[in-house]
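Quick one: structure for this chain?
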Amino acid sequence: MDTYENCDFSKRNNSENRNSPTDEETEDDYENTQQWRPKPGQCTASSVRFDYKIIILVLGLLLMLGALTSLCAIGILYHRKVVSSEKLSEKYKNATATLMVLEDKANETEQLYEMLKMKYQQVHERLFACNGWKSLGLKCYYFSTEKLNWIRSRDYCVGKGGHLVIITSQTEQNFVSSQIGETHWIGLNDLETEGKWMWVNNQPLKETDVKFWFSTPEGPNEPDNWKKEDHSGEDCAALGHEIGDINKWFDASCRKQKRFICEK
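Got it. Here's what it folds into:
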């Protein structure tokens, strides 16, 4: 850029319409031209002001760029913080849900423990109460070594504080069968009405619907009320038969002498 571009010359050559100058005029013009040169101080101040504007503009742009960069950095940090906060919130929710599940399981375990503790106490008390009788669950069983007829067997059990055994489940059937090696009286009879089998607690057999009568495909099946040995028939039930098969029920004459099972 020409340094003198903005300089204001105070005098101009007005000899555009004049004829060729003389030597004296030429010399005067040269002296005047020397006076038309711009003063160095005036042009330098203008250039400095222009340079200051450029510097200020550049600094402004740099400040704006720095501000934008700062805003971007703040935005990124804020976004990361929001994402991190959401992740922590999700982890907190999951941890809370897991804790609630564990708390429920702990409560269930505690309830189960209390239930088992109560059952243990009941079984322990029952074992103590059995006083030498064999136990299954909360029941006590006495397996006799002597043989009596059904009526005397029933009375004997009552005298011991119990009754002839009442079998109401497969578990109980398996247990009492495993404890004997021969036939035993149980607390089932149809003395009052033929074919209407009743337990000694006056509960009909049909109500429990638990039956383990002996049966074969070719027959005959129990109960058969066989009267060849006793004309009154077979009105009392026994676990097992004289010839074996101690896992099934047989009807027999109540006058027969058998071992028996008491329960309390």
